Each structure stands twice: as C-alpha cells, then as structure tokens.
C-alpha cells in the first residue's frame, strides 16, 4: 500500500486508537492490498470522546457499554443501576480506553 495514503488515514483516525498502537496499525496498513484498503476506509469507528459524554449522561444505565458493543456489561450495569453508582464512576475513567480497544479489534478483523 502507498505510504502516503496510510499516513493520511493515520492522521485522520489517530484519535480512535491508543497512541502505543499507532505504529503497529501503520505497519499492518502498509502491507494491505487494494481490496482490503477499500474495506478499511469504509469502517466506522467509535469516537472515544462521544462515549465519554454518553457515559457522563447515561452511564448508570449502561448506555455507554451498549454503544460500544459490550452488551453483557451494559445489561449488568442496567440491572444494578451502574453498580449502585460505583461502576458508573469507574467507567468514566475506563470507557475511552475501551472504545479505542474496540476500534483496534474492528480494524484487526478487517485487515486479517
């Protein structure tokens, strides 16, 4: 794959991944063929900032976990009212990292 295309993709989408994964993602993207490249460009990623805002507003109901695809955790938070509030507070610190990990998983599945 063309390094310039990959660098443009990385600049546009770097906020969706952890900083220590960026070089790994870039190296994987450089080895893609054109068919996979089109599929990767069409992926939509979870915005960590949006998930944090949703966690602030509806974290006690598990909406943040449903949003990123953690259905089991979302149901557990919904049934326990966010772990009586404790789990909702802890998720305020963890939800952005969880969204970035889900994005990395989604990209990895598309590349392989």
Write the layout of secondary structure elements.
Layout: H1 3-13, H2 22-30, H3 34-41, H4 48-58, H5 63-68, H6 71-79, H7 81-84, H8 86-111
Helix pairs in contact: 1-2, 4-8
Structure in words:
The structure is a single chain. By secondary structure, the chain is mainly alpha-helical. It contains 8 helices and no strands. It has helices at about 5-15, 20-30, 35-40, 50-60, 65-70, 70-80, 80-85, 85-110. The model has no long low-confidence stretch (mean pLDDT about 90).
Bulk shape: elongated
Q: Number of helix segments? A: 8
Radius of gyration: 16 Å
What low-confidence regions span 5 or more consecutive residues with pLDDT below 50?
none
Helix and strand sequence: HHHHHHHH
- In total, how many beta strands? 0
Distance from first to last alpha carbon: 15 Å
- The helical percent reads over 70%
Overall mean pLDDT stands at 91
What percent strand? under 5%
- SSE class: mainly alpha
């Amino acid at each position: 794959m063309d390094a310039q295309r990959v660098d443009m993709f990385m600049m546009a989408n770097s906020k969706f991944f952890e900083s220590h994964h960026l070089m790994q993602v870039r190296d994987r993207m450089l080895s893609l063929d054109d068919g996979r490249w089109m599929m990767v460009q069409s992926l939509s990623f979870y915005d960590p900032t949006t998930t944090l805002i949703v966690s602030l507003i509806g974290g006690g109901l598990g909406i943040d976990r449903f949003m990123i695809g953690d259905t089991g955790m979302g149901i557990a938070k919904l049934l326990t009212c966010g772990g009586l509030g404790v789990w909702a507070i802890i998720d305020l610190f963890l939800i952005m990292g969880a969204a970035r990990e889900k994005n990395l998983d989604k990209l990895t599945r598309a590349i392989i």
